[in-house]
Amino acid sequence: MHHQNTQLPESLQRAYCRAIYRVHSESGPASDWWLQVGTHQPRLLAGYAQHRACCATYLTACNPHGQLLNANDNALRMRQLCEALAAEGWVFGTGFGEDPQGRWPGEASVLIWGMDALTARIWGEQWQQNAVLWCSADAVPQLLWLR
């Protein structure tokens, strides 16, 4: 389970690994797709081809360092994240990270095309996240622990 060292409790690491990282489809909710840690996702390969990318990063600005914020504060943080990404020229789609056991509220997220692992870490740290989900050319999402 450990891709690198983290200070996060084992139970929290497991929650990140079990999470379902939904990607919203432009053609509507019925066409949404999911990313899961360690599971090959062919839809990523199609996205890579469409966006001329070889990697992607799934990131949220919600609940910094695992501290639950109210819906308005999370929405504001997500607006600020999207504005910052757009200002830097990143191409991204929206998503929603979900705990399949329902113990943690879902979090609005973005899937950023072409963001490499180092840059993913920088953005994740800037937005005070415990981890980011990074997808390499093999289209198998992995967690990059930030704490």
Descriptive overview:
This protein is of the alpha+beta class and 147 residues long. Helix content is 31%, strand content 24%. The protein has helices at 10-18, 42-51, 71-87, 117-126, and strands at residues 20-23, 33-35, 56-59, 91-98, 107-113, 131-135, 141-145. It has a seven-stranded antiparallel beta sheet with strand order 2-1-4-5-3-6-7, sandwiched between helices. A hairpin with an 8-residue loop joins strand 4 and strand 5. It is globular, with a radius of gyration of 14 Å. The two termini are 15 Å apart. The model has no long low-confidence stretch (mean pLDDT 95).
| Major beta sheet summary | 7 strands, antiparallel
What string, H for helix and E for strand, traces the elements in order?
HEEHEHEEHEE
- If you average the pLDDT, what whole number results? 95
Beta-strand content estimate: 15-25%
What is the molecular shape? globular
Cα gyration radius (Å): 14 Å
Count of DSSP H/I helices:
4
Tell me the distance between the termini.
Answer: 15 Å
What class, by secondary structure content? alpha+beta
Strand order of the largest sheet: 2-1-4-5-3-6-7
Brief summary of the model shown:
This protein is 31% helix and 24% strand.
